[in-house]
Amino acid sequence: MSVGIEHTYTLGEIVARLGGELLGDTQLQIDQVAALETARPRNISFFATTRLKRQLDATQAGAVILNQENREATQKPRIISNNPSAYFAKVAALLNPFEPAIAGIHPTAVIEPDAVIAASASIGPFVHIGRGARIGERVKIGAGCSIGDQVAIGEDTLLYPRVVIYQQCQLGARVILHSGAVIGADGFGLAHEEGRWLKIPQIGRVLIGDDVEIGANTTIDRGALEDTVIEEGVKLDNLIQVAHNVHIGAHSAMAGCVGIAGSARIGRNCTVGGAGMILGHLQIADNVSVSSGTLITKSITKPGAYTSAMPFSSHEQWLKNAAHLRHLDSMADKIRHLEQKIAELERKKS
Amino acid sequence: MSVGIEHTYTLGEIVARLGGELLGDTQLQIDQVAALETARPRNISFFATTRLKRQLDATQAGAVILNQENREATQKPRIISNNPSAYFAKVAALLNPFEPAIAGIHPTAVIEPDAVIAASASIGPFVHIGRGARIGERVKIGAGCSIGDQVAIGEDTLLYPRVVIYQQCQLGARVILHSGAVIGADGFGLAHEEGRWLKIPQIGRVLIGDDVEIGANTTIDRGALEDTVIEEGVKLDNLIQVAHNVHIGAHSAMAGCVGIAGSARIGRNCTVGGAGMILGHLQIADNVSVSSGTLITKSITKPGAYTSAMPFSSHEQWLKNAAHLRHLDSMADKIRHLEQKIAELERKKS
Amino acid sequence: MSVGIEHTYTLGEIVARLGGELLGDTQLQIDQVAALETARPRNISFFATTRLKRQLDATQAGAVILNQENREATQKPRIISNNPSAYFAKVAALLNPFEPAIAGIHPTAVIEPDAVIAASASIGPFVHIGRGARIGERVKIGAGCSIGDQVAIGEDTLLYPRVVIYQQCQLGARVILHSGAVIGADGFGLAHEEGRWLKIPQIGRVLIGDDVEIGANTTIDRGALEDTVIEEGVKLDNLIQVAHNVHIGAHSAMAGCVGIAGSARIGRNCTVGGAGMILGHLQIADNVSVSSGTLITKSITKPGAYTSAMPFSSHEQWLKNAAHLRHLDSMADKIRHLEQKIAELERKKS
């Protein structure tokens, strides 16, 4: 676990800042968040599901966050909140604040002419910032990032080391980009002519809204003609591919290894499980949830959960089933044939 | 959209350079390509499918590219071409030329002894070039790239920032590598001995032909004993994994998140849709098209389209179907049983 | 193939170092390993499967490694080993040793205060090493790597160019990290509140054991509260996503494009084929083998092979089968209905 500087708050201070109802010792010192099983006396934990009642009973945590319904599930010092996991996230943020960046430009950084960098921004070693780029207040750019010409980055945005942003892309405020993310590479735009592929120049940009977080080695391609758009509050995990001209609605979240093909339009508040794939030019409504490993091949107009995963089994069992999968059509024929025969038998009978 | 330097051509100049038949005002100024829906009067658009007739009728585009069959579908100034999308790609390239690299080596770059760099090449900041590497004419290497010992890069090749090329790999002319691509890392070569894995040194290289384009964060491993080969004109999208000893034939194209396992041999003019996977040691014929999300588990000897995706449905519907998927074998048994019974009934009948 | 410095050994020297029984000329000079088909007279090859008998008969290899059973399958100079592929791996390592790193810190590297770097370590150009990091003996860090604050790296570990390690993570001895790997980025930890996602600070670390190898552009996220753990001898290929709090047991190996979701616990000596996916919070027993393209949705308690892949077919055939896949439930209903009717017919009959 973290070895950073310790921040300590009393339960009373926590509730004063974050709200909620406090039962028990207001002076109890809390220095870290922890899971019920591993918490120590100066840690605060949370209880979200009655499945974990045994862990709650056994926990060494000094305090626990619970909802109204479970307010008497423990007699430890506790905070009652109608959303314990969100409350826990806030306590965790309070106890583990981002280290404030030290303002200034590292002497090894290379800044091209006409770039405008806020005085409070922190530019790390080996960073390259292109012509005419604009870097907002308190932005932190980690070692080895490459920021293209005319890129604009909003205030309080954080780039971990080795992020690349191609020319002209725009990032909002409080965006977090993890290492290896590549924003604005050319979309996969090709025309076919006499057995060869011609490259279609990709002249759109990537526009990323406020409060977006993008995982390590995730790639978001620039638009072909229009822009690729990631609206505010979107959260993308690692190793996700977002193709050109995709539009992802606000507050949607996608787990690792997802792929979104070109010009797909994803609604707001959607979720896509790990390795989910959405084909090109589809429209996905708001509040759609795509399961892990699911391939979406048609537009979805209604909110809800959608799945296509093939169930796994032992390899031997799978071999048997797979053989039938290849012959479902003839299986259906056999059933039709049986139905006819039975109809005949019944006719003769009567 | 792009805010680069504007390039403007008249329709007459465009046809003089790129061919095609011009109907209408030869003096019309065109400064950018655009989609039918968003085009403005100084833009040129293209009409490829009659599905978009309504958009064609409503477009603000100054001019349109169409095929012979649709030559009267609009009365706007227009260019008739037998391949409108390829023509559009060429106009787009004309109006959005690559910025010529400024020749020279950035003072922060580190060049090891015996590397040979053409005078017209452009080497960006924080680039590291290994011993004995050869960099061709007009090559452009973006910020933070790492070029291994004895690597050879052909003329007019373009590396975006933060590409890594391991030792001894060879790139042809006019290759484009996007940021985060890793060429020539060790293949996944292991031998098993007493419960442990022994690393098998990977002594092959990666050879990349002319006019290849490779997407952001795509990885192409070096060969184990022989070389991994990407033939000319191949186009690979982002986040693709190409394992050791793979051979991809000329002018094949693969969309994002594809994986090609070791020693697979893919033919010429193949396409693989997003997240398609091809297992190791398979042979795929020329002109094969693998659908998105499809897992290829056997060699393919005939051209054509191949698919394995499981259709998606609402999660509730899927739960019902998935239960049967696990029991297809017993379903087939039941059908066989029914057939026997009906045969008996029919026998008794007669 | 490799153009490195040549290392040459006689067959006698090889057997003296690596064991095995030598039949034939002990003085034969061997300068490289090769496949049977492409071997030249100074190469040594290996014969593992009788499927390759024809290649064995035709090989130009100077010597061959075989098992006891096949000791007379060729009359060439040969080494008898009970594990020819492991023996081959060892010969390959002997003939292709890692180039010893030149000790020292490149003048362009930036080392923050309180970092401790062994005198025998080699730190490449444009490397950034954070406060309090500890770099062991003979560690080699390639160009452009970024090592976070308080990171610890064990002896003889090798980082290829452009690896990123976030703060506080720990690597064992003899670890190999390929280019673009990102170790310790934030896990995808979010709480939902009023339609928005709150980030949960990720305060765990990544702990990587001895002799682990991690492929290009693979990402391993730090733990949310506890640590993400990769035990000794684990081998991960390229473009793999390992989410927060995952635990991978010793000597497990995973091929390219695999995804392991949060808090999954994978046993020892497991293998996962390319693009296999394991959902979150699952427990996978030791000695489990997950097939390529397989999605694991439930915990696995027994060793063995598990598969879920949908078999591929021509697209036309697939279209027919896919239609039935969507209606398996009604197909099952029809079968039930037929069974009832037949039972009725049989009842009437008797």
Write the layout of secondary structure elements.
Three copies of one chain form a homotrimer.
Chain A: E1 9-10, H1 11-18, E2 21-23, E3 29-30, E4 32-33, E5 43-46, H2 53-58, E6 63-66, E7 78-80, H3 84-95, E8 104-105, E9 110-111, E10 116-117, E11 122-123, E12 128-129, E13 134-135, E14 140-141, E15 146-147, E16 152-153, E17 158-159, E18 164-165, E19 170-171, E20 176-177, E21 182-185, E22 190-193, E23 196-199, E24 206-208, E25 213-214, E26 219-221, E27 228-230, E28 235-236, E29 241-242, E30 247-248, E31 253-254, E32 259-260, E33 265-266, E34 271-272, E35 277-278, E36 283-284, E37 288-290, E38 295-296, E39 304-307, E40 313-314, H4 315-325, H5 328-349
Parallel strand pairs in A: 4-5, 5-6, 6-7, 8-11, 9-12, 10-13, 11-14, 12-15, 13-16, 14-17, 15-18, 16-19, 17-20, 18-21, 19-24, 20-25, 21-26, 24-27, 25-28, 26-29, 27-30, 28-31, 29-32, 30-33, 31-34, 32-35, 33-36, 34-37, 35-38, 37-39
Antiparallel strand pairs in A: 1-3, 2-7, 22-23
Write up this protein.
- Three copies of one chain form a homotrimer.
- Chain A is α/β, with parallel strands linked by helices and 350 residues long.
- The first copy, chain A, has an eleven-stranded parallel beta sheet, with no helix packed on it. In chain A, strands 9-12-15-18-21-26-29-32-35-38 form a ten-stranded parallel beta sheet, with no helix packed on it.
- Chains in contact: A-B, A-C, B-C.
- At the A-B interface, strand 22, strand 23, strand 38, strand 39 and helix 4 of A face strand 4, helix 3, strand 40, helix 4 and helix 5 of B.
- Strand 39 of chain B pairs antiparallel with strand 40 of chain C, so a sheet runs across the interface.
